[in-house]
Amino acid sequence: MADLVFPDNFLWGVATAAYQIEGACDEDGKGPSIWDEFSRIPGKIVTGDTADIACDHYHLWRQDVALMRSLGLGAYRFSISWPRVLPEGEGTVNEAGVDFYSRLVDELLAAGIEPVVTLYHWDLPLALHRAGGWPNPEIAPRFAEYAELMFRRLGDRVRFWVTLNEPWVVCHGGYLRGELAPGHKDLEESLRAGHTLLLAHGMALARMRSLRPDAQIGLAVNLWPVHAASDSEEDQAAAARLGAYVNQWFLDPVYRGDYPTAMREAFAETLPTFTDEERRTVQRPLDFVGVNNYSRWLVRHDSERFLGAAQMGAPGPVTEMSWEIYPEALSEIICWVQEQYSPPAIYVTENGAAFEDKPDERGRVNDQDRVQYLHAYLSSAHRTLAEGAPLRGYFLWSLMDNFEWCFGFSKRFGIVRVEHDTQARMMKRSGYWYAQVIRANTLPSESSDT
Ligand code: FCB
């Protein structure tokens, strides 16, 4: 295989999220989020960790930007903690919180790194949860006000905005399965939460667009190809149903003005309907679709399971998350987005892998498994360019080991190792490797060529 050259101006980045790295959970006027509450409930986080301190990025941010500079990054995708800037979710602004992000943006720009801001990466202000949370449609205008606030404060320097990160996970994990905050298990709530999230996205986008028409505004969705375990009609139908639920729940309303038929069939009246006005709100054009992809799902028909689809074990090697290493998933799903919706641009807003990462006696991590994973997924992404996909950038998850939601600190996704007791950072082999890829704007033919 030859070296794979990426287009000029291809945006090379890394991604993080506020709750997973910042810590300082109640410092300088920050209000609590649903994750601050959820992580304290015994049994919710498998390791018993909270992200009260996390990677202490709230204090170590300069050092972290210096690390990013040494990686030669072109962009950094981070999220804003809504309750850090609006402790009650609305009303009084916590200026100390806004300043934190404003300084971070300046530092990034000074380092030549393009900031990419995600407005919602799962940490809903607790006060808004008490007011009903996402199932309450009133939260949508609150989100739009918060988006406008941040846009007014940072929009002069930040070009790229992601309204929501993985609304599907918010609904499925937070309101149906209960594995993520706020830990509810209610189908109706979950579907209503999805409806509010779509409205929140549309309202926020409209406000930002009216302030600065040239801002680049998109949505980051988790997209995983869903494959049938066999050719049988039943298995194929099960895969199609689950695929519509996972991959089309949010993109179909944005691009087609309604939920996919398979969801209407499965959930009937429980699935909200769009008024004409809501449809207009939701259907505003995006500047890009952000694709978060790690793997695929393999399913077979099972009438006892949700949507009649049972997930099979991975037939091949897996990461520490038990997610199958299946690089073709990334090109398949990018091409699928292009075919289905033809957005003007696509960014891979997350891709990466958790591995065990045993450090040597000097604490160094020779994570060849991660390098191989990244190499395979990046070549897969590169293939879509030849197919004409408007792939404009790639954000590796994640800059550093962090708080992996209900798994606590047990899953390490970083290309920088973090010792969670001392906060020491150390570049892993994958970090040096990624820096080389960025510098050359080229993927070397062999992943071990470093
Ligand atoms: C995604 C989340 C991100 C991280 C990765 C591993 O679903 O957006 O915060 O947890 O998975």
Report on this model:
By secondary structure, this protein is of the alpha/beta class. 40% of the residues lie in helices and 15% in strands. The protein contains 16 helices and 15 strands. It has an eight-stranded parallel beta barrel, surrounded by five helices. Strands 7-9-10 form a three-stranded mixed β-sheet, with helices on one face. The protein has a two-stranded antiparallel ribbon with strand order 1-15. α15 links the parallel β11 and β12. α7 runs parallel beside α9, α14 runs parallel beside α15 and α15 runs parallel beside α16. The longest helix has 25 residues. Bound molecules: beta-D-fucopyranose (FCB). Beta-D-fucopyranose binds next to loops. The site of beta-D-fucopyranose has 12 residues, from loops.
